[in-house]
Design brief:
heterodimer; A: 261 residues; alpha/beta; Rossmann fold; four-stranded antiparallel β-sheet; globular; B: MetI-like fold; binds adenosine-5'-triphosphate; binds magnesium ion
Chain lengths: 261, 251
């Protein structure tokens, strides 16, 4: 399935609230994500980042507009897009060991046992857990579980990884390691990444593109950046630091606006 | 601690022994050693085995049917809107009616033979199994289902490989509770209308003033319950261990 761009066009989303009212979450979100990009979404809490990701994943339909790969509209979940969830304990299958978790996608694709096993080994090695395939999720640390979830997604060979604050629940050290490793995995596999974070530092470290959202309700896109930062990226580089404060200012403006309401 | 456990058993036996002939009439509440002798005699002549097997056979049939029906109904209630609408109200109503109260109806409807016992056991089993199964199926984390969808699982695979495994700890809890209920149901049914079984043994001993036999029957009930519960736990531990990893609580 070859495609060039993931397009979000005029995406709006309303929810019916429990009290019967309407929550107007997203309004007219238009974005273009090139194949191979590491596209990160930043924005104030509750603005609708996860909602947008769920629309791309096909878990939720948009109220207006929609997502499409080239001109194929996203109509539901598909194996070309795999979500990596922050809540990894619930995302993994607790009754399967690490290898069985990774083999789940290939199994659903009806691959034979030999090929499934090869895939599992390959991706467990890629995330550095080839020695832990026999362990069950409860025996693994949060960081290891998140690696398993990444391996499980990659073993299915999707085009796009949709990641909703995947490292937010990890301690600072584990997080730093995973960020570095994941950037390597991204550049080796050439996957397109659609990434959500609250961490500006993480966003600048990883992304090729970055979009800042406005505060909800009726949230939209405030500004999109293409990041041509000096490599290796480091907060001590002047362009990194300048970009950091620019993005921080934008988000602060939105948070202020939200507070003012 | 072995010491405290032994002390507890010894203490209970001593209290029983002391109260027989003092607090209670020894003809109605015989001392433990008399019961032990009687129990031994009943075991030796096969009477115990006869009645125990009669009850157990009923439970096996009724519990198996009740469990299967309960799981299917529970799944339907949790997954199918129409099934929920149609089954939830009667189930919520009926769950308040204890199995013992159903026995006269069971006898009227299904007669004095085995079918009425099966009915009572199925009834006792099905209620906890349905409610636990429905709760388990409904509690499957949404993101786990979504993760499976992203990995290419269709509706059937999601149900069999994700929803059901997520629900197993609940279903097994229901099955375990139901096993206890099944024995309560069968004993009560046998006390009211039967020619065999542990419940019959106990009721007959009251009518015929055979207190040693009555105590033997009670002891037997405790023993059968304990053994079957342990056997249940052992089997689950062997066959379903990986599904219990998601919850620590299943000792
Ligand atoms: N199913 C729903 N029903 C009603 N409102 C919803 C629903 N899902 C999300 N919302 C609302 O939509 C808004 C956006 O939610 P969303 O989870 O997308 O925000 P977010 O940007 O991911 O926030 P965070 O950064 O805290 O994760 C919130 O105000 C939320 O209350
Ligand atoms: Mg979110």
């Amino acid at each position: 399935m070859s495609w060039r761009v993931l397009r979000l066009e005029g995406v709006g989303k309303d929810f019916t609230r429990a009290d019967g009212g309407v929550a107007e979450v997203l309004r007219d979100v238009t974005l273009t994500v090139e194949r191979g990009a590491f596209f990160t979404l930043l924005g104030p809490s509750g603005c609708g980042k996860s909602t947008l990701l769920n629309i791309v994943a096909g878990f939720e339909g948009a109220t207006t507009g929609g997502a499409s790969l080239d001109d194929r509209p996203v109509a539901g979940p598909g194996t070309d897009r795999t979500v990596i969830f922050q809540d990894v304990s619930n995302a993994l299958f607790p009754w399967m060991n690490a290898r069985e978790n990774v083999e789940f996608g290939p199994k659903m694709a009806r691959l034979g046992a030999v090929e499934r096993n090869e895939r599992a080994e390959k991706y467990l090695r890629l995330v550095g857990l080839d020695a832990d395939g026999g362990k069950f999720p409860f025996e693994l640390s949060g960081g290891m579980k998140q690696r398993i979830q990444i391996a499980r997604a990659l073993a299915n060979d999707p085009d796009i990884l949709l990641m909703d604050e995947p490292f937010a629940a990890l301690d600072a050290i584990t997080k730093k390691h995973l960020q570095v490793e994941f950037r390597k995995i991204w550049s080796e596999t050439g996957k397109t990444i659609f990434y959500i974070t609250h961490d500006i530092f993480e966003a600048l470290l990883l992304s090729t593109h970055l979009a800042v959202m406005t505060a909800g309700p009726k949230a939209g896109i405030k500004e999109v950046f293409q990041l041509d930062l000096e490599e290796p990226r480091s907060p001590s580089n002047p362009d990194f630091a300048a970009m950091y404060s620019r993005v921080e200012t934008l988000i602060d403006e939105e948070v202020q606006r939200m507070r003012a309401r | 601690m072995v010491f405290w456990r032994t002390l507890s058993v010894a203490g209970a036996l001593s209290l029983w022994w002391l109260s027989s002939g003092t607090l209670f009439n020894p003809i109605l509440v015989p001392a433990p050693h008399k019961v032990a002798v009687h129990l031994w005699e009943m075991t030796a002549d096969g009477e115990i085995l006869f009645h125990a097997w009669a009850s157990l056979r009923r439970v096996i049939v009724g519990y198996a049917l009740g469990s299967v029906l309960g799981i299917l109904t529970g799944v339907a209630v949790a997954r199918i809107r129409i099934a929920e609408d149609m089954l939830e109200p009667p189930l919520q109503f009926v769950r308040n009616i204890t199995p013992v109260a159903i026995i006269p109806l069971a006898v009227n409807a299904f007669g004095l033979e085995e079918p009425s016992k099966y009915f009572v056991i199925i009834y006792s089993t099905i209620i906890p199994v349905v409610f636990n199964t429905a709760a388990g199926v409904a509690s499957t984390p949404q993101i786990r289902v979504r993760a499976a969808m992203c990995l290419g699982a269709g509706r059937w695979d999601i149900f069999v490989r994700v929803v059901l495994p997520s629900a197993w700890p609940f279903i097994l809890t229901g099955l375990r509770v139901a096993l206890g209920f099944a024995f309560m149901g069968v004993v009560a049914a046998e006390m009211i209308a039967a020619e065999s079984g542990v419940g019959y043994l106990i009721m007959q001993s009251r009518n015929m003033l055979l207190p040693e036999q009555m105590f033997s029957g009670l002891f037997l009930l405790g023993l059968i319950g304990l053994v079957t519960d342990r056997a249940f736990q052992f089997t689950i531990g062997r066959l379903m261990r990986r599904y219990m990893l998601q919850t620590a609580a299943f000792d």
